[in-house]
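check this:
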Amino acid sequence: MAGPWPETLKVDTCTFTFRRLKDEILFNPIGTVFKDNYSIASLERAFLDTIYLFPNYHFDNVSSLDWEKCFELAPMYKNKQMMKRLYAYHKNYAQ
């Protein structure tokens, strides 16, 4: 999970790890839907947050991603290495 500060919490048998996102990313509403009193990331926003925070993360299936939407959202991260990872995923998995 992403938050304004890094933290690990243990609740019963579950461990929750929060990774820090820059405020301009964390609080950017692009690619999210506000519902009831919380925001939910779109599939593409969640994918981009993950490749930004976890460079070596492996995805089993990215076939349902809207690659055009990914490339529209990606500039907000202002991260060249993440863009390289996005291009690599697109090259290897886009149909």
Observations:
- The longest strand covers residues 14-20.
- The CA atoms of residues 3 and 59 lie 22 Å apart.
- The chain has a mean pLDDT of 92.
